[in-house]
Every structure is written in C-alpha cells, then in structure tokens.
Prior knowledge:
By secondary structure, the first copy, chain A, is α/β, with parallel strands linked by helices. The first copy, chain A, contains 18 helices and 22 strands. Chain A folds into 2 domains: 2-53, no CATH class; 59-367, Trimethylamine methyltransferase-like (TIM Barrel, Alpha-Beta Barrel), CATH 3.20.20. The first copy, chain A, starts with a helix and ends in a 17-residue tail after the last helix.
Amino acid sequence: MERIHETALDVLENIGVANAVPRLQEVALKKGCRISDSGRLVFPRTLVEDCIAGTPKTAFYLSRDGSRDLEMSGRRVHFDPGGEAISTLDVGANIYRPSTLIDLYDFARLTDKMEHLDSFGKVVVPTEITDHRAHDINTAYASLAGTNKHVELNFTHTGHINDALDMLYLIAGSEKAYRDHPFCSTGGCPVVSPLTYGEDNSEVCIDAPRLGSPASVIIAPQAGATSPAALAGTLVQAMAETLAGLLLVQLTTPGHPVLFGVWPFVSDLRTGAFSGGGGEQALLAAAAAQISNFYNLPCSVGAGMTDSKAVDNQAGYERGITTVLAALAGSNVISEVGGMMGSLLGCSFESMVIDNEMLGMVQRILRGIEVTDETLSYHVIEDVVYGAGHYLGHPQTLELMGSEFLYPTLADRKSPEEWEENGSHDIRDKARERTRSILSSHYPTHIDPAVDKVLRERFPLQLPVEAMTATSGRW
Amino acid sequence: MERIHETALDVLENIGVANAVPRLQEVALKKGCRISDSGRLVFPRTLVEDCIAGTPKTAFYLSRDGSRDLEMSGRRVHFDPGGEAISTLDVGANIYRPSTLIDLYDFARLTDKMEHLDSFGKVVVPTEITDHRAHDINTAYASLAGTNKHVELNFTHTGHINDALDMLYLIAGSEKAYRDHPFCSTGGCPVVSPLTYGEDNSEVCIDAPRLGSPASVIIAPQAGATSPAALAGTLVQAMAETLAGLLLVQLTTPGHPVLFGVWPFVSDLRTGAFSGGGGEQALLAAAAAQISNFYNLPCSVGAGMTDSKAVDNQAGYERGITTVLAALAGSNVISEVGGMMGSLLGCSFESMVIDNEMLGMVQRILRGIEVTDETLSYHVIEDVVYGAGHYLGHPQTLELMGSEFLYPTLADRKSPEEWEENGSHDIRDKARERTRSILSSHYPTHIDPAVDKVLRERFPLQLPVEAMTATSGRW
C-alpha cells in the first residue's frame, strides 16, 4: 500500500493531470501547484497529503425520513445497486431492451423494499429522454418518487443542479428542511483515464458540495486499456486519478466530505471489452478499498458485478466472490451490486431481488464470530454430553436461533424430494414471483401529493401519473 | 483462536470422549490418559499439545503419474469435489435419481479433465451395491479407472483395506512401486458428535496409515443439532473432536501425517436440516482453516457447498462466497466444491464443470497482486500519457496479457446483443455441452488393460467393461 501510495504521488507530482478546468487551476496554482511544460497540472506531494488529511474521516448518506442514514467510516459496509445500465432485462425475459424512465422508477420502488440495499442511484438510464436537462430532472424525480433511501443524483451539466435543488427543497418542505437533513448527493467521474480531467464532470464535482452531502468522486480506469495491464500499475494510476478528484473538491471546498471512489476495472484483453466479474476485478476492488482505508477516507468501490447476461450460476459466483472480497476489505459503499448484469450494460429486477438475499449473507459474514465465555459454550457442551445428547432443545439453542443465524427467505433449503414436488424451481423463478408481488403493490407516496402537483407544474416531468399506481396494470 | 484452543483442551481434559476403541485405550492409558467416572477417555492437555507438535507440518497427496502431486502445508490451497452424495442430477435434468457406480466412474473421468480440481473421492455413492465389501472395492476401482489424480478411498470396515491394498499394488506394478509413491489415502469421521468415538471409523482411522498417505480425519458436528448453536462453541467442540481424531492416529502411529479436517456444519434451526450454503457456514469453514493454520497442521475444510438443487444463481453465490472465504483463510484442501448440490444430497455433472471454472477464478485471487518496480508501472504510465494515450498496444500489455489475467472459457463475457444472437444461453447450457463433449470422448486407460483383466478376475467388480468405452452410447 505504501509503495502504491508513493508511486501515485510521484505520478501527480511529475506527470500530473491534463485539462484542469479554470476554477480548479485558479485555486490550485495559489496552493503551490504548477502547469508543467506539457500543459498538465502537477501537484506537490505535501499538498496532496494535506488534502487527504483535511478530508473528513466520517461522512453520511442520509435518507429522507432518517430511518436509513448511512455512516461511512472505518470499515462499515453498505450496498448500493449502482448504475447506469442502458438496458433492462424484463422479468422472465432473455432479451435486453432499452431502459426507460418507468424502469428507473420501478427499480427505485424495488430498492425501497430491499432490506440489504442501502441507497439508490440512476441504476438504469431513461434512454427515451435525450434532452440532457430533462434527463437529469426526470431521473431525480423518478428516483425520489420510488424510494426514500439516500439518492445519488447524476448531472450531465452542473447547471442542472439548480433544478434539482429547487425540487429537493419542495420535497423536503423548505430549503432549511433540506439543508438540515440533506438526503441526496452527487458527484461523478471527473477524470478521463489516463490522467485527464473531463470538463463537465469536473464542474459537477466542484459543485457537488452544494447538495449538502459528501461529494462522490469515482474513477474507473480499465486495466490494459486506459490504465496499465499490471494490476499494481492500475492501482497506482487509479489512486493518482482519484486523488486528483479529491483535490478538485478539497481545493475548491476545503474540508467538505468526499466519498473516495477508487473503481479500477478490467479489460478482457482478448477483445478489449470491459469485464466486471473476474478474479482480477475482485482483487482490484478489494485492494482499492484497502488503500482507501489506509488513508482512512470514506470510500466506495465498484464490485459485485457480473459479465453474465443470464440470471445464472455465473452471475451468482462472480457477484458473490467480488462482493465478499470488497466487503471483507471494508469498503464503505459497494456499488453495482443490485441487479446490474452483463458487464454493467443491463439491469434485471429478479437479480436485484436475488442480490439482496446474497447481501444479507455477506452482512452476516461481516458480523463474524463472537467469542465470549458464553459463546465458547463449555458448560453447554457439558450439559449436552451428560444430558440430552443433542443441542436441539437446549436453552442456548432456543436463545440463539434468532440471532446467531440468518434464515434466507428466497434461497432454497428444501430436500431434493420436496423441491421436485414443488416444481423444481430455481431462484430466478422465486425472485420473479417476489418481484411481481412487490412491484404490483408497492407504490409508495414518498412525495406528498400536493407537492407532486407543484413539481409537475414546475418541471417537465415525463413519468406518467398513471404509471405510479397499482391500477397501471404494468405488473 | 487461543481461547477456542484452550477451551477445546478443557473439553478433552475434563469431559473427554466416549466409546474409545480398545486399540486406542491401550496406548492412550499408557500415555497418561484416563477413563473418567462416566467411562469417557480424557486427555491431559500436555499430551494433546505434544501430539499436535509431533504431527508433520507438511503432508502430500500424490497422484498416480506424479503430474499432480499436492503439497499440503502453510496456506497452499487445493480443491476436491468431496462426496458422498446419494443422488445424481442428470445432465439437463431437474430430477435427482439414486446415484450408481457408473455415475461415480463418470464423475471420476470428468474430474480427470478439470484443471482446477486436484484430487478425487467417492463423490457419489453407488447406491445399487449394498454389500459393504463389494461397495468399497468397487468404489475404489471406479475412481482409479476414471482418474489418475490422488484418490481418497472410503472403507465401511477396516478389514476391507487389505482388498484395496492388493488392488493398489497390482495397479502400481508392485507393492514396492506403490509404497514408493502412494497415490491413495483414507480416513474417515471417527467421532460422532457430540464427543463420542464411532467404532468402525475409529478402526479405519487407526489403520489409515497403511495406505502410506496422510490419514484424513474429518469431524462434522452440526451447529444447533450436534454442537452448540453458538458458532464459537461449535468451533470449540469441532476442534476438540478433531483433536480426538488426531490423537487416534498419533497415539497409534506416532509421527504419521494427518490431514486435519475440522468441518463444522450448520443446522437450519427452522427445520433441523443440514445447511451448507449460508454465511454462518462460510464463517465456520474459514475459522476452522484459520485455527488449523494456527496449529500449522495440514488441513481440510468442507466449503463451497450449496443448498440449491438447481444449477442456478443461488448455487453460484453460495459456493463462490463460501469457497473464497475458506481459500483466503488458507485451507490446504477445500472439499465439497465440484458438483455437490442440495446440501450434499446430490451431485451434478454440469455443476462440476462450472465449479471448475469458478475455482480458476479463486486461484487467480489467491495469487494476489504482485507489487514490484515493474508492476507499479510508473514509466509505463509516463509512456502512455506522453504517447499513445491508451495501453492496448503497449509492450507491457502485450507481455502481461497472458500472465496477469485468467480468461474464462465457460463464463460468458459477450455483449447482450451477441449473447442474444447466440441463443441467450446460460452457463448451465454451456456446461452441458462441455460435459457431454468430455464424457463422450474421455475414456482414459489409467489402468493397464492386462492388469485390469487380473483385477476383474480377483475382485467382484461390477463396472461393466462396455461402460468404459466411447461406444457405450451413454453420452
């Protein structure tokens, strides 16, 4: 970790980052940065270290009603479905179709009922909305209508943040109510790998603190394509780039919390295509979380992805392995693990429901094994050996059966005979039923109807009112 | 770990183990053990500690031709399909039927071609053979005919070991040839939880060293049923019981290598049924490996199981998560991870093929990330930033593309469009094809035909000769 850190600082100090936006350059040059002969902004290592030190070690993603506030610090782990898939796998289908605004709303509603998903963002792109401004505000609305968990907003242009703030103040009741308890965040990918700032995303990241939540800075170089094929080298570059993102926020809004998103990805070098489900990806995400924890920064990684298009065994083991590694490494937010399919190109409702079940298992693992005089159970063993001969009826068993074990509600534990008698269903079949049951009934009113009317007057909202009731017949 | 160890020694010293067979009692009493008032054999802690210290820290599972010898030491990880399922899931089917000797032979042939499975045992039970002696020798023969990887043999009675040794000497060419390079091992589960020696299995474990390989001692209490519901208590009891198994071997054949198999399992306390795929199971197996490594003993755990009957997403994530945890904990042998389904009640060919693919991913993870001046890639980053702007054609990429990345051969990485054009197959479909391709063509002659003739004269072998050729039409 030390060597990756030191080399990342070498990169920032000597190679630097191209295309720094004027708002960054202005403050950076005053703080001792300079423009190199090749026009790149280079950062003295002491400045980088000061900015790391000046970033809060704890950050919060708040939920609308306070029932699901997330503290991101230390090795606390939360799960987020991630996003921006451009296609949806319909329930029961084997074809990906372009995703829509209604899909986004439906995924938000489903996330709302998933006990192990902690926050929500633009999991699918409403591909039918091509106007950027309409896209951003509709995305925000569909998300906020569907769930009151913390929502990460996306902005194609920083100018659209004002629209969103207007909407958030209305939903919260007032600007003050929102400011007292901000339940949305934003950020983006301000660096195009290798080591070049992107203009629009830089501006959004600089303005992200306006939402009152941590600014989420995410950097996703692809090993072998936009970063070195050597995994250690990809970590070096990813760290340098994420630090460049952190600097963007810290130099312009010193002391504002940042969610440090080191998201190195992998290219399958046979085709150059992005791959999210392999062992190398598992290692990179876990290592990224480790290094972020070495900085003690609130962090996110992309993990729990699959390259499979089918809701199948491959999807299961790729997701399971990559998720549990990132979780054990202590990533505060693990994103892209709630329905995302096919190397992030599509999203599946059934997968979201299955992933939720799997995430419960991962959270159980994170709880670990409690070792106390009582749990060591010497006297319980003695009782049983000299007594009943089995533990099924022992008071300890009765006492712990509800707390020591997590009972899956979707995963099948029947005997083969019972399973066959019940129709030999696989978990996708069961997830399909649960998805339909939730989505045909859970039409939450997270936005007050009176406020909703105002929003519809003020913004070009395209989510049909009739799509937001059980009578829509969609499910 | 210290506390679990100390409490396990308390259990052995004070509560002890019931039903010690005379061959054990005889030596144990001379070494300072005694029979307690309740008739149980109790072990002084210094004796237990001496026996742990006297057990070799390195053990080998050898393969027939020396091409796949396994060194079990430190944190080296190997994978074994495990066993003894009583039913088989036919390729493409959704019904479990009683498993047969031909199934066992077919699973052995399939294992023979699985590059990430390291050894083989009685993965399914030939349920049609009810005579114990015929069962044991036929099981040995079907396994040895199907694969030349290391084979773990099972004996229902220690008297059957002589049959097997006769067979092994014939296959090896001579007793000396086998003794110089023993390629089979045995052992068993000598303790019935809680804390009671089983007679037949005790005898087999005492005689296991006769095969010239490490004696495999496996103890599988079920948390909540045959061991405490508290996971820490289950570890205490499982350690005490596995040490009781180790003592069985060490007191009767001092210094013989033992494969220390702490295999705590879980009961689903809603039904009392065994469950192998949950988070608690993942924790128990990883903890068991950690404690075995704390003793520095060659060890095995049961992990990579699933409760699913379908070759589905549940099977994938349950297996993936439990396997990678046991692997990261450094278990020398991870068993039950090559086709076993439905809480170990069935076995699936397609699953074995899929698991093999997954195990490659796990091995890639175990290799980790190499950090050197070269892999840190500072100068590569410099090259690309000031040059091509991407890494696809960089010499480092070309050099590392074959070594840094493992390319799956079964897992799908196609785009959704390409996947749909190719028929929207899931990984089970692809595994079915590969299974059929291997099993219709791979009829190895691991046993010399002249020797085979002798074996068929000498032993009541039931595997039909015609089942052992491609013309059998079975596949």
